[in-house]
Amino acid sequence: MADGSPRITLANRRALVTGASRGLGAEIAAVFAAAGADLVITGRDAAGLEATRQVVAGHGRRCRCIEADLRTIEGPRRVGAEALEFLGTVDILVNNAGIVFLESLLETTTDHWEETLAVNLRAPLLLAQTVVPGMIAQRRGKVINISSMAGVLVPEGHGSYAASKGGLNLLTQAMAAEWGRHNIQANAVAPTVILTAMGQEVWGDPHKGDPMKARIPARRFGQPVELADLVLFLASPASDFICGQVIHLDGGLSAV
């Protein structure tokens, strides 16, 4: 029976959010701070990170920015170590950072393939390897991986990206299988087009965007706060029995 306390809250929680200098990561950080979390945020854009930090500070929460390159092996490990140093422990890990190269399979270069998998698939593992031992020790934690519907329904020209996100979906299930016994919930969110600034740039032209929206039963694209609110739910105690899921945030796209 509920005790009357709020269930969707991050009070006294500490979170690490990657790719938080803009777009979805910045929106997630802002929503987390409003819900009571202290944060470490990382990305490659120092100015963007500082802008996000100011939003977090506006909610009265602590926040450290870590400029890092998740394409490397050392980058994610350093981010995890510095997050632990600042926060003491990481209760919530949000693997949001991602990159995409739009090219056909025959045109995909080995450099683009390796860079895509490094950021979208290897970095989430390396970050988890750094912070999850602390979650195991405290018998509580959340890992939320931002995947994509491209890892489920593969669009043309997204081969390396789709492979990385499909791998991330399976990695999420592996995390759940291994860490669920320690009261750690690992889940992935797979959105369709979300209208960040980048999403608006790519899909804002009606000639391109309207045919895609026509495929979505909701007949629209998602808003950044809608994804952030779902991530907040997955990070909160309200979702403690949801584990190992790839949740489609797609307006019904996968139902048709």
What can you see in these coordinates?
The chain has 256 residues and is an alpha/beta fold. 46% of the residues lie in helices and 15% in strands. The chain is built from 8 helices and 7 strands, in the order E-H-E-H-E-H-E-H-E-H-E-H-H-H-E. The chain has a 7-stranded parallel β-sheet, sandwiched between helices. Strand 1 (14-18), helix 1 (23-34) and strand 2 form a beta-alpha-beta unit. Helix 1 packs across helix 8, helix 3 (74-87) runs parallel beside helix 4 (110-138) and helix 4 (110-138) runs parallel beside helix 5. The radius of gyration is 17 Å and the shape is globular.
Strand content: 5-15%
Fraction in helix? 40-55%
Instruction: Report mean pLDDT, rounded to a whole number.
Output: 96
Would you count the extended β strands for me?
7
Order of helices and strands: EHEHEHEHEHEHHHE
Strand order of the biggest β-sheet: 3-2-1-4-5-6-7
Short characterization:
The protein has 256 residues and is α/β, with parallel strands linked by helices. The protein is built from 8 helices and 7 strands.
List the keywords.
single chain, 256 residues, alpha/beta, seven-stranded parallel β-sheet, 7 strands, 15% strand
